[in-house]
Amino acid sequence: MTATASLTGMDTAPGTNSTDAGDADRLPDTADLISFDSLLTPGELALRDTVRAFVKEQIKPNIARWYEDARFPLEIVPEMARLGLLGMHLHGYGCAGRSAVEYGLAGAELEAGDSGLRTFVSVQGSLAMSAIHKHGSEEQKAQWLPRMAAGEAIGCFGLTEPTAGSDPGSMTTRARRDGSGDTADWILTGKKRWIGLANVAQVAVIWAQTGEHGDPRGVRGFVVPTDTPGYTATPIEPKLSMRASIQCEIELDEVRLPHDAVLPDVAGLKGPFSCLNEARYGIIWGAMGAARDAFEDALAYSKERLQFGRPLAGYQLTQAKLVDMALEINKGFLLALHLGRLKDAGKLAHHQISVGKLNNCREAIEICREARTILGGNGITLEHSPLRHANNLESVRTYEGTDEVHTLILGQQLTGEAAFR
What we know:
Low-confidence stretches: 1-5, 15-22
CATH superfamily of the largest domain: Butyryl-CoA Dehydrogenase, subunit A, domain 3
Largest sheet: 4 strands, antiparallel
Strand order of the largest sheet: 2-3-7-6
Structural class: alpha+beta
CATH architecture of the largest domain: Up-down Bundle
CATH topology of the largest domain: Butyryl-CoA Dehydrogenase, subunit A, domain 3
Number of helices: 11
Number of strands: 9
Oligomer: single chain
Number of domains: 3
CATH class of the largest domain: Mainly Alpha
Strand content: 5-15%
Helix content: 40-55%
């Protein structure tokens, strides 16, 4: 299976033997202690292998340079689109219509390359495209989704503000009508911060307050072409994390939009939260992809590096580290798969996404840090992936809900008491 294959294939039941000629050549993941592949369908395995090959051939040979240069490689976007990775879980409008599990498997492979690559697919598909797909008018969908699925237009999602992160209901970005009646223009004013892809995007989904300050019911989404006068996006730099990715501050200075720029099918914070849950779900898988890659780097190094006349892998303390990492990777992927199956069945609860995001990010960052210790001083170089992954995961752990926010969501689920304020 090569990176030039498309993400197509017929699924059969999990665990069913596949007649795919590539199965005989498939090597098990070095961290797999539980025959995880037996839980996947042949179609899911084929998709995963296609994305894995793409990452191996086009991402891994270049990621150290991209990270060092703090550059997101826009040149890979057409190939991502051709593989069907953009809005891959959405149906219609040129989107691939893949399952939640397939989307998760792809996210894990992309983040094994770098968190910035999985984040691009998440911002494009789970946030910007999902917002339009879930809540947009038919005209908005037809105008933007086919181009975004084809990689011809990049989108961004403007929710977070300089003073409104975990509490988006306190946003100060305002949208007001210029005149009376349903056909009056909208005027947007405010700032957004930590917005992925905002300076290279052709369209931004901006969330703004249309009612009283602090009233979450007044929050509405707007489809904003980024060439609209008054829209300015400035990259945030320098960064110690997510260097092969783009995050910006957006300034909205009296941005005038037509009356039909608003997303018509949602009002209130349930609009952005429905998209954030899509992105949080992808992180559950992606974080484990980063952890697995760090583990594999450390394992390979431990077999080759000699200390006191024998490989590091031959020492009990090293084996203990490797075993602990592998156990958490296996548990993390099992959790991701279980949640993915629930999502595909339409049974995934809001708090269960928090279980996955909190657990897998927390474990992944510890795995990457531990993997770095096996590499010793060589682990601080970009020749090896664990510290790069750990640095990236500091951001992944923070965005789409901090540890504290997800802990409180789960605390409320367990106790029935909301402790956010």
